[in-house]
Amino acid sequence: MVPSGLVVLTDRWQARRPLPEVVAAAVAGGVRWVVLREKDLPRAERAALAAALRPLLAEAGGSLIVAGPDPLDGDAVHLPSAGPYPPPTLGLVGRSCHDRAELARLTTEDYATLSPVFPSRTKPGYGPPLHPDGLAELIQASPVPILALGGIDTPDQVHTCVEAGALGVAVLGAIMRAEDPTQAAATLTEAFRAASPRPLTPTSTNPHGRPPTATREEGQ
Question: For 71, which DSSP code?
Answer without folding.
Answer: -
